[in-house]
Backbone:
């Protein structure tokens, strides 16, 4: 969506600012809500002492897959709706983003955690020209060259967010490459999440994801 029409003219003391040459990456969000009965049922299946490192039960795995399927449908409907009834639509009414973010930093966080960048990358790219020679690329993929044409591929992807103070306390970013695997990273501000707690959360998440992947 082109927001250049919403940008104000460049100030006289900044003649190098040209809205027609500016590029920005705007993101939106989707809130998922779960009823208290569902949350209580899932919590009852978890060990009271997280240090036990207990595996997910079969009943809990089925519950999580069912919830995930529902969340996926919500994402699909959101994508189909585009920017209708979306937060991005009110961006043009914000006259001072710096002040807006400063005000948000003084308020209680709306979310404890968020998940972003869900999706799968197709790591294979078609060569620009017919290829005959294959070499190993510096990042671990295959580079197929012929003349000035080349072919590249992605073996592994990782995504991270800046730990914004107004944002969620901990942010998860799972990224997958088709036929390769998934990498899950997490970011959090030191003032919001203790490092030991964050590392324990990631250890539990890794163990549970391995179990869920084995069932899929």
Residues:
């Amino acid at each position: 969506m082109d927001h250049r029409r919403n940008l104000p003219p460049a100030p006289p003391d900044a003649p190098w600012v040209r809205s027609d040459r500016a590029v920005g990456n705007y993101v939106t969000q989707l809130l998922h809500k779960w009823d208290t009965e569902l949350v209580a049922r899932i919590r009852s299946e978890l060990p009271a002492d997280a240090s036990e490192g207990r595996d997910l039960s079969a009943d809990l795995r089925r519950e999580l897959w069912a919830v995930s399927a529902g969340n996926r449908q919500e994402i699909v409907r959101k994508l189909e709706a585009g920017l209708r009834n979306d937060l991005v639509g009110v961006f043009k009414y914000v006259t001072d983003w710096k002040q807006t973010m400063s005000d948000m930093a003084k308020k209680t966080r709306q979310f404890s955690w968020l998940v972003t960048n869900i999706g799968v990358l197709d790591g294979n790219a078609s060569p620009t020209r017919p290829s005959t020679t294959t070499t190993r690329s510096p990042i671990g993929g295959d580079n197929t060259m012929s003349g000035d044409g080349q072919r590249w591929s992605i073996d592994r992807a990782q995504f991270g967010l800046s730990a914004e103070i107004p944002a969620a306390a901990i942010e998860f970013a799972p990224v997958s490459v088709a036929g390769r695997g998934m990498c899950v990273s997490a970011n959090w501000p030191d003032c919001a999440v203790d490092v030991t707690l964050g590392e324990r959360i990631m250890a539990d998440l890794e163990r549970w994801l391995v179990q869920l992947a084995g069932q899929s």
Observations:
- The radius of gyration is 22 Å.
- Residues 4 and 21 are 9 Å apart (CA to CA).
- The longest strand covers residues 170-177.
